[in-house]
Amino acid sequence: MKLLVSVPTGVYSNSVYLPYIWALLKTHLELNYNKNVDVTWLDPIFLKTHEASYCDIFLTSNYTWNWQENLELTRNVKKLNPNCYVIAGGPQVPFKDKKVFDLYENVDALCFQEGEQVLSEFLYRFTNNLDLDIDGIILKTNPNKTIKFAKKLNLNDCHSPWKYCFNDLMRFSKEIHSHTKRVVVALETNRGCPYKCSYCDWGMDITSKIRLVNEDIVFESIEYISKLQPDTITIVDANYGSFKHDLDYVKRIVKKKQETTFPESVIFFGAKNNKKLVNDCYKVLFDDGLIGMIQVSFNHTDTEVLKNIDRDIMRRDKFMEEMQESFMVGIPLVGFLILGNPGDTIEKWKTAWSDLLEMGFHEDIKVSDFFVLPNAPAAQPEYIEKFKIKTHIRNHADTFKNRDFVKGELIVESYSFSKEDFKEMQLISAFIQGTHILSITKFVAMALYHNKEVSYKTFYEDFMQFETIDSILCPVKEHLDDYMSDPDSIKFIKFQGVHVLYEDFIYLSCLKKLDSIYEELEKYLHIYFNPLLVTNLITFSKNSILNLNADGSAESNFHLDYDLRKYFKTLLTLPPTVQYDKDPVKKSTHILISDQRLGQKKEINFDKINNLDNIRDHVLRAPNFRHQTTYWL
Q1: Less Cβ crowding at N or C end of the chain, within 10 Å?
Q2: Domain 2-153 belongs to what topology?
Q3: Measured at the alpha carbon of residue 394, what is the angle toward residues 391 and 396, in degrees to the nearest 5?
Q4: Is the dihedral of CA 98, 102, 107, 108 positive or negative?
Q5: pLDDT tens readout for residues 313-326
């Protein structure tokens, strides 16, 4: 019996995951399953260049980024062998939907839980012509069966797929690298998640007790993974840092990196309620250059909104206490918000942004739309009815370069906000990112907040009314109208002929009209500051950001009457939520920006940037990677 497994990876078109699902199934069937099954394992599909081949059983693992590709592969497999038996699994298969087989029309069965034991038993029955209607499986011939889960695996008894399938995985790793793509591996140290966040469907195993992989097996896996020369290790646990041994695991990864130079980076998703240990893990990785920032997932700051999405699991005071600990670790922080939560309003959304800026998230804030995963709580009829949710389906990506677009369903209306409100919240997000996070008004807004107690919410509401800003936002508003009405539209707008994020369009347009913006801003600031300080604030802002003057070079030599460089260095390094109560010191200061390299690692050389197209193509980045890229200090 020829068995083909499909696990194509997408989104990041330059990065490819090694086929972990394939290795898990093969390892379990051949080492853990206690019955003999005669299987010929074909090389799995994991690259987009891979095509369907003749097989007797076709298994697809479906996620948001690959389910459409798997559907096409399924059609091709059926053409090659109409009798091929196709089983679809993974979190993107809406197994509770009675019409699921209308969408997965060429699929013969669904697997709705972890697959090792279920699929091993299924394959045994398939090869021996036994009844296939087992727990954990829904057959197309019996779509309305009562859902019953098979017993979960005891992960303590499992073997390392990285060790058992090492030779094949090494071959796959070399194949990926031969295509000049990055190799990514998934390291699993536990399964399950005790929480029930409405937007989440972590491994189809939420609201469940965490089960641990045997420690020796994890250490063994790390040893073999490092030999595969991965560029990135993604630890795929839902709450990493929940257990003391998690710190030992990252220390071992660091040790292997020092020995082999692999991996270059590590990604993990930190535990919600054990920030001390999570931060210790981050610190170990940061000190060895394996991570560059910590993403702090607020999702929102409003109590009602957090309750609606079942994220009110931690008291705000406790959360702030642990965020202080994250700050003390000394690693750059990125705030994270979700747009489209039921219960949100325009005012609440503005306040959430203002809250994060007051906490000190001035370098980067990432916003995700509320994507409805088919088996998550938010996708269930009772949740949709309760919160009066409406959605639309669009192609999306977090940046235009080096990404594959993914079709997803996102919330655009609820009991608390209309589609018009949704558009306004999108505009607010893009506006604050394009002007504050990318430094057009970062310093001015910080001075107003700390020196005059003008909230960020107030300032950016006022700033949006500037005549020049209104002219910049008009094209974005028009594009948002198209995005909401046209199913084929994407949330990218063209700047000088090239697609960019809304915030990047706003930022580049501001640079183009910077003199007009600062003229209006100067008049506005006279309400709050003395004329000399206003002049200094404008001069400092103009010359500390990526301002291109007429001859194409950045201004790097200027004089101030206030020591604003020291003042803003102090503000940018304040602990979270601390408000500075001292005025800028009046002191004649000469500023020479001799080093015009940008970024945390000084990897961007601004000496070679001489126009807005260069800034667009060589400076602007996706969220999570924008620290210190748009200003000097």
Answers
A1: N
A2: Rossmann fold (3.40.50)
A3: 125
A4: positive
A5: 666 666 677 677 77
